[in-house]
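User: What would this chain look like folded?
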Amino acid sequence: MTTKRDYYEVLGLPRDASDADIKKAFRARARQHHPDVNKEPGAEMRFKEINEAYEVLSDAGKRATYDRFGHAGLGSAGFQSYSSPFDGFADIFDQFFGTAGRRSQRGPQRGSDLRYDLEISFEEAVFGGERAIRIPALRTCDRCDGSGAEPNSEPTVCPICHGSGEIRRVQQSVFGQFVNVVMCDRCQGEGRVPGEPCQKCRGQGRERGVREVTVKIPAGVDNGQQIRLSGEGESGPRGGPPGDLYVVLEVAEHPLFQRDGFDIQYEMPINVAQAALGDEVAVPTLEGSEKIRVPAGTQSGHTIRLRGRGIPYLRGSGRGDMFVIVRVMVPTKLTDEQRAHFQALLGGLQQESEEKSFFEKVKEALGG
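Assistant: Here's the prediction, encoded as structure tokens.
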């Protein structure tokens, strides 16, 4: 286990040093050991140690705890040092120097990913299919092949960065002056610019266009699912590879069926006579009409299951089921003849109910 050095020793200060002395010592030592300036082995570790010491000693509460309990007291006070020479180094670097010393990305870059929202029918989601879509996107210029220069035009050295691909700017910080390196926006880090810009893409190397893409829709997809088409996104800058295209599916509702995962539901209306006597009824399915048997005495809400008539499983074989929910429809308008039949039926049912009630009372009286 590595023993931590005394923070006052790290900054070269006595224990009664003032806040101004601490800040001055920190700036001097940080400038001396900063990795952007000091290329000696271990410079990163020393810089981190200096920063850690300053973070404690510049804070009145942490300094008081450290003076009383040493390094052990800082753990209970919530202060944690970095566990490795490089953990958190980028954060320290950004805090004091912004983007100084970071090399900008040069050369070909990957193009942007694209998203396309595609509305499909319920049947397309169930059985799959293919759809041709038109995608507006940046594509490599076919005149200059992405170089941005007219054919046979020799590139020249960038007049802004003079061929380095980078622009160096002086930035003031608490340590003094530091060099901030950014990518040249004139040549995009290439260091060279077209001698004569391409007339078609105006030197950009890419042009906006529309292309047709075929999307294969697998059977069993659902609303909100994505289909990834690799390499169908925008072309990359400076001849870089294209990004990907993500097709997000929006499944239209069906007028008859309700989807529940890989199962479907259908509400089947029947009349009172069919419910009472039973009947053979034709119901729509995903493949067409099919006859099912409604048993006598069926109540409203009764469910009939048709196995394997649902949605194909997206991954693997087989399909879900179809559930037919029976809805008994009570007529609201009756002819005189129909009304007479229902009144006769109602009288018979009432008599039957009364007879059952009389015999039940006799049976109870006889102790049966």
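The chain has nine helices and 15 strands. If you want, I can go into more detail on any region.
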